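Running this now, will post back.
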Amino acid sequence: VDPRSASMRGLRLEQLEELLRGHGEYLQEPAFDEELQCHRRPSCWDFYAKVLKPASIPGRSFVELYLPQEVHLVVSHSWLEAFEDLVLSLQRHASHGAREGLEKMIQPTPCPWGYWLSLLSTGPAEVPEGQMAAAMETAQQFLIAWDDAGRWSTRLWCLYELLTATKCEKPISVTCRSGVLGHGPALAEQSRRVARRLISSDPRCAVDDLKALRETLGEAG
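Update: finished.
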């Protein structure tokens, strides 16, 4: 069977929530990081290496364990973010979308949108840039999942995703654990801080994590 097309590699929020619940004991328990010398919850990198990669069909993306799902939103996030926080950010976005109604995405069922994430939707033998660009072409929106530490703007891969979305003329939204930025007075100050970080982002100063991403995706499970 040929690999699934990038435009059909979405996962619904309820499926991401099932992943979180199914591995909650691991994902929600802080462990001591020898390198950073502090306790932290497992990051997306950790979750990919420990759970997603071993569970995937050899050579395929993790989402291919599920039925095909159309991609509505391409999600950009820092792989250093805790997976639990990433899911919470998407929950906040879905709640906002359910209240406001996302253009061309209103469906009769709750939260039907398919989210594309490189973490889940790219196979080890595939070029991440190519899969992301192919998904972006058919997606209806580009969604930045902003982490509390603001590491998103320091990652070259994330900035490259933003550049691709801009070239494809996709609407761009920013979500975080507190909600969708730019909507509501409670998030006004945080929205301004994030906007300043985005405006001042310089690819020349960003961490080139694309090589590390390729190596991680291609490592033996």
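The first strand starts at residue 31 and ends at 33. More later if anyone needs it.
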